[in-house]
Structures are given as structure tokens and as C-alpha cells.
């Protein structure tokens, strides 16, 4: 997947400017403050949004989970998971069968017959991921799936990330929380004011904590280090 000379202009203001970006098969964490352009970038990659200028070349199939995940009221978890897969072109019977496997993958199989609107925040986030998995897409784009979750539920989501990568699927997750920089993420992209400020591996990102300056990437790296030290004290 490759992005070239990508811009998004709103009301005369450029909110995203990406000269060049390639998304390969490395699990990637897209970091940035609220308003940095993370959701806009993922929306462009997924095809939900059109750029003002530039091109996006994608050969992989993509499933995009928006930050405000809103399943259909009245559907059970299994029904909704199967319904979305059917919309993606799966046979109804196959979609229904695979939905149960995806719910099990995300530790939601015990809630297969629970109505979606009765789920907790953590359960709803896992349903969103299960639904994306059931589409059969090779690349999953997840927009702040754990933004409103507590520490325990965030850890559950992280464990699912690892399982997704171990299963051979590509994963791009956006977040404003540098504390989510754990395995399996090996690549970090930092967005600031609609531009890419940093793009490198996890080790290179963490080394920014010891460099002079107060860029968004440096501040995030220091935040991550201080939190790790706090947990270890």
C-alpha cells in the first residue's frame, strides 16, 4: 500500500499533508495527539474518504474500524458479525459460521447471543475487531479501539493484537496514548498537525526520549519511558 503526494484541505486549511508513505506487513502503531490527523489518514487509506490531491495504491483488502463503533441495535453479536461479512461478499452460511470463530478469537464467544447494545465498552471494542476479522480482509485499520477503556481491557485488546499478527494479518492501530506501544508493534508513525513527524522502528522511537527538543514524537517517547519507569518503581 502506497500513498503519494496526499493532501486533505478543509475550508482552505490543509489538515493532512503526506508526501509519501508505504504501509507494508509490519504491525504499525500510529501515534498522535487528538486532531493530529490519525482518523483522517486511516479514512483515506480505507477508501472512506477521498483526498484533495494525491494517490493511494492498495492491493490488499482492507477492513476499517472507526473510533465510534456503532453496531446495529437489536442484532446479537453473532448476527452483526455475520451481517457485515455478508456485506463484504461472503456467503450467508459461511459468514455465520466464521462469525463464531471470530468471536472466539476475540474472547467473545460466550456473548454470541448477547444483543450488541448491551455490551460493555471493552466487549464492544472486541466485537468491532471480531467483525473486521470476519470480513476476511488482509489489513485491519483500527482507529483508537481502546481509547475509552481501562487498563485491564486495554491489555485484553493488546493480547488480541498479538494474535492477529501471529495469524499473519497486517495491523495498523491509531492511538493518542504512547503507553500502548507494546508488542506486537514494531513500527511507529507519529503524526503532528497533519504531517508525519517520525516513521521508524520501536527502538528508534524510544531513543527520541534522550534527544534535545520538544517535538510531538520526543514528548510521546518521554511519556512512554516515564510510564514504564513508574510501573517498575
UniProtKB/TrEMBL annotation:
Keywords: Antibiotic resistance, ATP-binding, Nucleotide-binding, Transport. Pfam families: ABC_tran. One of its GO terms (molecular function) is ATP binding. It is a peripheral membrane protein. It is found in: Cell membrane. It comes from the Bacteria. One of its GO terms (cellular component) is plasma membrane. InterPro entries: AAA+_ATPase, ABC_transporter-like_ATP-bd, ABC_transporter-like_CS, ABC_transporter_ATP-binding, ABC_transpr_CbiO/EcfA_su, P-loop_NTPase. Residues 1-218 form the ABC transporter domain. GO terms for biological process: response to antibiotic. PANTHER family: ABC TRANSPORTER ATP-BINDING PROTEIN, ABC TRANSPORTER ATP-BINDING PROTEIN NATA. Belongs to the ABC transporter superfamily. This is ABC transporter ATP-binding protein. It comes from Corynebacterium phocae. The lineage of its organism: Bacteria, Bacillati, Actinomycetota, Actinomycetes, Mycobacteriales.
